[in-house]
Write a structure and sequence with these properties.
Elements: E1 2-3, H1 7-16, E2 22-27, H2 32-47, E3 54-59, H3 64-74, E4 82-87, E5 90-96, H4 102-109
Parallel strand pairs: 1-3, 2-3
Antiparallel strand pairs: 2-4, 4-5
Length: 113
């Protein structure tokens, strides 16, 4: 999962979703629910490695400006943890908190990989 630390990197990540599906994970390093979601995301990224899906990570506390920019640019109200699937520069699916599970993401990502 590629860490996104600047608005420019976020914009490049979004632009890349025109070439391949992209999954953006917004993670809070201060939240136990987010820690569990991060473990689920590790499983997902390992499972879909090499399957033409980009994975990006925004740390919502450390890179707050980027997290807020993601909300503005993608039109999805901020929550953390939060996962979004982008295609052609737009969010086509998103979820948060306890809904971030490997099995759910597998069913969402399998058709697009």
């Amino acid at each position: 999962m590629n860490s996104i630390h600047s608005i420019e990197e976020l914009e490049a990540f979004i632009a890349g979703s025109h070439e391949q599906p992209a999954v953006l994970f917004k993670h809070s390093t201060r939240c136990p629910i987010s820690a569990q979601a991060a473990e689920e995301m590790k499983q997902v990224t390992a499972q879909f490695e090499g399957k033409n899906i980009a994975f990006g990570l925004v740390l919502v506390v450390e890179d707050r400006e980027v997290s807020l920019a993601a909300q503005d640019k993608l039109g999805v109200k901020h929550e953390s943890p939060q996962v979004m699937l982008l295609k052609d520069g737009s969010v086509i699916w998103h979820d948060s908190h306890h809904q971030i599970r490997c099995d759910r993401l597998e069913s969402i990502l399998s058709p697009v990989s």
